[in-house]
UniProtKB/TrEMBL annotation:
Pfam family, one: Glyco_tranf_2_4
Main location (coarse class): membrane
Organism: Sulfitobacter sabulilitoris
Protein name: Glycosyltransferase family 2 protein
Keyword field: Membrane, Transferase, Transmembrane, Transmembrane helix
Amino acid sequence: MKFLAVLCVRNEAAFLLDWLAHHRAVGFDHVLVYSNDCDDGTDAMLDRLAEMGHVTHIRNDGPYAKGGIQFTALKRAGTLDVVRQAEWLLPLDVDEFVNIHVGDHTLAALLNALPQATAITLTWRLFGNAGQVRYQDAPVTRTFTRCAPAVMYWPWRASMFKTLYRNDGTYGQMGVHRPRKPDDARLKDAKWFDGEGRTLDRQFKRRRIFSNFGQSNTALVQLNHYPLGAMESYVLKADRGRAVHSDDLLGLDYWVERNFNTDEDTSVQSLAPAADAIAQELKSDPELARLHAAAVAWRHARFDALMRHEPYRALFGRLLMAAPSRPVPRKAAHFMAAHATAARDGPRDS
């Protein structure tokens, strides 16, 4: 196996087949998926996909380590043969889509462009809500095409990345954004590149989880990130909870830091014909088609149920009232960054 994606999901069955189809088209040979506490049939869909050979499915029902649900899954994944046998690893979320801009837009083309790489950072490009209110059963990459500018100065989350890395023993454990537990003896030979093909310095080999501000980081590859979806879907996301910080309630602050719609980017659709063909093949299976339809119905019913409770009605109302987010100008971002640096490096307030 050359390329393995690792995914953690809860109540995502309505999106799963389109996500899987896209990443099969990108070039992933297999997907390892952890599920937990599913109410919409995600676990049943994954069981069927596992029977068909498309995924390896493991129920991640706990107990969970201090780092939370996703950290626990990734830590356990390192013991599995399906991980050990892979040449390249990439942990992803179901709202993230690999988008390669070189060659035939596949992982093979990306490695051909960066033949020396042992790790490549895939920087997020944040895709906003674009005023979509009601959830629709349609591919995310076709529904949401408005996004943040290629160059962002604030917030730092807009420049976070996921790491595609060679599974050669340099790192002993997967992490959400970057590999962990480096082997010092091997680290000197690791070669990290960013999504523009630039060589990255040694701090990226150990600790960085976001790309440098104020520059484009995505000429060769980017990670399309759709963290919001339609307003209905965001309410369901708040109900579901977060995979990393499961105790944090989603509110308007999370929304504002991600709802950028100033630009349009449809480049991910370069693989749409191939992905659509794979999706149709998957949905031709009667059991997968039934589970997908049931998941779509579940999302509509769950939203109606949540709207009977004031906290979720209030959240939905705030989303309707909130304007799209404005990118922070460079001068203002530098002002805030200077204060952040001073707070980190200077004497603490008494």
